Amino acid sequence: MKNPQIPAEPVETLSARGGLMKTRMLLPGETGRFASTLSWLILLLAVMPILTMIVMSFSGASNLDFPPASYSLKWYQAAWHTFVSPDSSDVLSLGKALGTSLWVSCLTMILATLVAVPASYALTRCEFRGKAVALQLMSLPLVFPMVVLGLALLLVFDSLPFHMDVSRLVIAHVILALPFVVKNCTAAMVSIGSEVEEAAQMLGASPTRAIVDVVVPLMKSGILAGMLLAFIVSFNEFTVTYFLYNIDVMTVPIWMYSRTVSSLDPTVFSFAVLIVLIDFALIWALEKLVGEGGVSF
Amino acid sequence: MTGLILQNVEKYYGSACAVTDVNLHLPAGKLVCFLGPSGCGKTTLLRMIAGLESLSSGEILLDGEDVSHTPAHERNFGMVFQSLALFPHMTVGENIAYPLKLRGVSKAGQQARVVELLEMIQLQQMLDRPVAKLSGGQRQRVAIARAIAAHPKLLLLDEPLSALDAKLRESMQVEIRQLQQRLNITTILVTHDQREAMTMADIVVVLGEHRVQQVGTPIEIYRNPANEFVADFIGSGNIFAAVALGNGQVGLPGGGTLEVPGSGPLVAGAAIKMLVRPEDVQLSPHQAPEGNRLAGTVTFIRDIGATIETTVECGGVSLISLTTPSQGFGLGVGHPVSITLPAEACRVLGA
Question: Within 10 Å of residue A43's Cβ, how many Cβ atoms?
Answer without folding.
Answer: 10
